[in-house]
Amino acid sequence: MRDSPDSAAITVEGLWKIFGAGAHRVLGGDDRHLDPAALRERTGCTAAVRDVSFDVRPGEVFVVMGLSGSGKSTLVRCLTRLVEPTAGEIRIGGEDIARASPARLREIRRHRVSMVFQHFGLLPHRRVVDNVAYGLEIQGVGRAARHARAAEILSLVGLDGHAGAYPDQLSGGMQQRVGLARALAVDPQVMLFDEPFSALDPLIRRDMQAEVVRLHREVGKTMVFITHDLSEALKLGERIAIMRDGSIVQVGTAEELVGSPADDYVADFVRDVPRSHVLTLRRISREPEPGEPLDGPELPAATLVKDALEAASVSSRPIRVVDGGTLVGVVDRVDLLAFLSGRDLTERAGA
């Protein structure tokens, strides 16, 4: 179920971006349904974003994931009209972005929405404190006030003591922290991340992912995060949209994508994800059988399967799976072994 436009931080309806001279002609005809290769051959146009609709809830981390060329970066750039959409509606905080004047659009970008890119875009001739304060400077905030705010945000992102450094004196991970601090300094309602960590070394990338999780917990900003890395999407996203050829194939939680993929494309994407690290007891629980004991250990329905193994190992009784004190089902050792072995749990129910 989608949120109402009034309750969503971001609402996107029927968004299209077609590159090429005949974009509007393509959109008005049947050619828009052609696959990407056929569309390019027939019209010379490329449909980078195809009839995309989704909502992002206030305070949510919403991840858009797809392979190279899937349209995800074009999509995020359309949200603030860095790339002009061909058609569709975009609302941020209820405001129609498509109808915003150039002056109003500049205000939205300066005050309400910040963006973090893969390439840090730091000003090499400016110290870290001035890079972080740059957005505030553009807003007209005085030097003392913006430096005080920059120092506060540098502390938040773990860069105390580096205010006077220049970008080329910092590691890649530290430079990206400066970019993150710059985006946070203007106190935006929405933060957009376009594959910000893909150029970083794996260990630094993992640290930056943890940093985003921590910052989101502390500041609670609405975040839209673009990535081609499934593990990154699963780690960061409260909900994940998977794109293919400009369209959204499925939107759901990590558990929904892994447990109920919409099609073979999504299933192939999530095939190598350890299911016990994503799926919860709610998904594998079943109705108690007649006479089955209900005095075993009790665990919340949101418990990950991997986290239930210890309880199952120390008790021969079925685990009672509860939600708010209400029994929603049971899981015993046989159920867990069947799940871990990949056997369909409905086999036991039908046995």
TrEMBL record:
UniProt entry keywords in alphabetical sequence: ATP-binding, CBS domain, Nucleotide-binding, Transport
PANTHER family: GLYCINE BETAINE/PROLINE BETAINE TRANSPORT SYSTEM ATP-BINDING PROTEIN PROV, GLYCINE BETAINE_PROLINE BETAINE TRANSPORT SYSTEM ATP-BINDING PROTEIN PROV
GO molecular function, one term: ATP binding
Similarity comment: family membership: Belongs to the ABC transporter superfamily.
Pfam families in UniProt: ABC_tran
The keyword ATP-binding is assigned to this record: yes
Protein source organism: Nonomuraea pusilla
Occurrences of domain ABC transporter (ranges): 34-270
Record keyword ATP-binding present: yes
Protein name listed in UniProt: Glycine betaine/proline transport system ATP-binding protein
An example Gene Ontology CC term for this record: membrane
InterPro entries registered for this protein in UniProt: AAA+_ATPase, ABC_osmolyte_uptake_ATP-bind, ABC_transporter-like_ATP-bd, ABC_transporter-like_CS, Gly-betaine_transp_ATP-bd, P-loop_NTPase
Any one biological process term the GO annotation gives: glycine betaine transport
